[in-house]
Amino acid sequence: QVCAQLCRRPCYCPWVPPRCPRGSPLVLDGCGCCKICARRLGEPCDFLHVCDQSQGLVCDYSTASAGTGATCNFEDDEEGCEVNGRVYRDGEVFQPSCKIQCQCLDGGFNCIPLCQEDVRLPTPDCPYPRRVEIPGKCCPEWICEAQDQHLLRDARAVSPLLPYPCREWGTEWSACSATCGVGFATRVSNQNRYCRLETQRRLCMLRPCPAPPAAFPAVS
């Protein structure tokens, strides 16, 4: 009866099919008559306005009893994750920004950086490297500044009230080079007078080395 009320024969469809937003394909409506834009996840739906079945979506009427109307939802009970107001299916890979890539896993998500977090130390051909944002590019890049510009900025930044002349930056201390006894740990830091990246070392000792076994006298 519902089908007979909603589906009119013959079909009267617009001459030009609608332009669908990105990710929403053209499909036949619930009467199999006119082409419409498939409803996406979380969008309202009914018998006539169908959901995108290619994405595994069905019209979920479980919320209709609460007075909110039916919405498109996944057919099964797979867990998903929501990021910035958008829901992703379990196992789906997405990029919230051009700098990171994430994957939805068991209701949460794991992300990895797409930009290299390398550290460039001063070299003779580039004594004052600096990482800057380049217009039109996603990842920052290293540039080499002139010496006079660097010294001028250092002179402006130095203050007797601050322990360091600029914003502190450094890596974590590395593991000790020796498993027992005295060794070295290294890190890259700019905590120096000129705020330059440099490799720093310090002594470390995880535990004392065991004493060598005592020599037994020879038995004749």
UniProtKB/TrEMBL annotation:
<dbReference type="GO" id="GO:0005178">
    <property type="term" value="F:integrin binding"/>
</dbReference>
<keyword id="KW-0130">Cell adhesion</keyword>
<dbReference type="GO" id="GO:0045597">
    <property type="term" value="P:positive regulation of cell differentiation"/>
</dbReference>
<keyword id="KW-0964">Secreted</keyword>
<dbReference type="InterPro" id="IPR000867">
    <property type="entry name" value="IGFBP-like"/>
</dbReference>
<dbReference type="InterPro" id="IPR001007">
    <property type="entry name" value="VWF_dom"/>
</dbReference>
<dbReference type="GO" id="GO:0005634">
    <property type="term" value="C:nucleus"/>
</dbReference>
<dbReference type="GO" id="GO:0031012">
    <property type="term" value="C:extracellular matrix"/>
</dbReference>
<dbReference type="GO" id="GO:0008201">
    <property type="term" value="F:heparin binding"/>
</dbReference>
<dbReference type="GO" id="GO:0005615">
    <property type="term" value="C:extracellular space"/>
</dbReference>
<dbReference type="InterPro" id="IPR043973">
    <property type="entry name" value="TSP1_CCN"/>
</dbReference>
<comment type="similarity">
    <text>Belongs to the CCN family.</text>
</comment>
<dbReference type="InterPro" id="IPR009030">
    <property type="entry name" value="Growth_fac_rcpt_cys_sf"/>
</dbReference>
<protein>
    <recommendedName>
        <fullName>CCN family member 5</fullName>
    </recommendedName>
</protein>
<dbReference type="InterPro" id="IPR050941">
    <property type="entry name" value="CCN"/>
</dbReference>
<dbReference type="Pfam" id="PF19035">
    <property type="entry name" value="TSP1_CCN"/>
</dbReference>
<dbReference type="GO" id="GO:0007155">
    <property type="term" value="P:cell adhesion"/>
</dbReference>
<feature type="domain" description="IGFBP N-terminal">
    <location>
        <begin position="1"/>
        <end position="75"/>
    </location>
</feature>
<dbReference type="InterPro" id="IPR036383">
    <property type="entry name" value="TSP1_rpt_sf"/>
</dbReference>
<dbReference type="Pfam" id="PF00219">
    <property type="entry name" value="IGFBP"/>
</dbReference>
<keyword id="KW-0732">Signal</keyword>
<dbReference type="InterPro" id="IPR000884">
    <property type="entry name" value="TSP1_rpt"/>
</dbReference>
<keyword id="KW-1015">Disulfide bond</keyword>
<dbReference type="GO" id="GO:0007165">
    <property type="term" value="P:signal transduction"/>
</dbReference>
<dbReference type="Pfam" id="PF00093">
    <property type="entry name" value="VWC"/>
</dbReference>
<feature type="domain" description="VWFC">
    <location>
        <begin position="79"/>
        <end position="145"/>
    </location>
</feature>
<comment type="function">
    <text>May play an important role in modulating bone turnover. Promotes the adhesion of osteoblast cells and inhibits the binding of fibrinogen to integrin receptors. In addition, inhibits osteocalcin production.</text>
</comment>
<dbReference type="InterPro" id="IPR017891">
    <property type="entry name" value="Insulin_GF-bd_Cys-rich_CS"/>
</dbReference>
